[in-house]
Amino acid sequence: MSSGENIEPLQALYPFLNAKKTDSATMEQALLISVQQKIAQHLDVVERFFSTQGEAVVGCARTVADVYRRQGRLFTMGNGGSSSDASHIAVEFLHPVTTGRPALPAFDLSCDKTVMSAIANDVGYQHVFARQVASLVRKEDALIGVSTSGNSDNLLRAFSQAQKIGASTIGLCGGDGGEMAKAGLDHCLVVDSDSIHRVQECHVAIYHVLWDLVHTLLADERGFSGSQFSGSKTSGSKSQEPTGAKP
Asked: Where would I find the H helices in 109-226?
């Protein structure tokens, strides 16, 4: 789109810049253009990430698969919208909806509001994940942290604690990776975009692909059985509770 082209319909999206009332036809055109632009941006961000970091995603999947091979567990964390992504990651592994995929132990550290609020109130929000990591995470486990900026202090403190324990550390972030990219994590997957929405959308694609690759790696090995984690074979889309220790 050349400079100055479609300025009038695009201005309809920002009425505070235009003293005139926008007619409905112009608004409709502006909205459709906005949809097309956002989808184009989404596709560009996702395609650029996977074309340049496909091998990094595979390496991350191998690390998570190794965690489950040694009877470890996956822990996730995030703030705000990224907290929702952390929960999404955990439920994908703990309750797979694909037939034949075993349930694998995964837990979201932000799901317990009592623990979160107690730690935040007593010692500060910057410690809400690190305190839990110190109590729950073992060296056989992995910790995934999701942050659009990569600068969330509470995630960085938790990663530092996990590194002291010897657990595997995985970061999903955006922009230039922020402090997370400098934290010496085992894996740091950076989505190169300054749009929070585009970063979050790509994060969803990343952990869906990661989940699938982990199951592919485990199922491809002779002798692997989902029953060692779930207690019995999955039936249909139903998954069994893991029998291992829970936080």
From this structure: 113-122, 130-136, 153-165, 196-219
Type and span of the H or E element at 85: helix 81-94
Statement: the pTM of the whole predicted model exceeds 0.70: yes
Tell me whether residue 115 is exposed, middle or buried, using C-beta atoms within 10 angstroms of its C-beta: 0 to 12, 13 to 18, 19 or more.
middle
Give residue-wise pLDDT tens across range 4-47.
455 555 565 565 556 566 678 889 999 999 999 999 999 999 99
53: closest CA among 218, 200, 202, 220?
202
The bridge status of strand 74-78 relative to strand 168-174 is unpaired
Q: Cβ distance 99 to 237 under 8 Å?
A: yes
Q: Edge-to-edge, what's the strand order for the sheet holding 106-108? A: 106-108, 74-78, 142-146, 168-174, 187-191
Q: The CATH number of the domain where 103 resides is what? A: 3.40.50.10490
Q: How many domains does the chain have?
A: 1
Across-strand partners of 191?
A: 174
Query: Exposed (0-12), middle (13-18) or buried (19+): which is 20, by Cβ within 10 Å?
Result: exposed
Answer whether residue 133 is part of any domain: yes
Secondary-structure percent of the chain, ordered helix, strand, coil, rounded to 5: 55, 10, 35
Boundaries of domain holding 130:
54-230
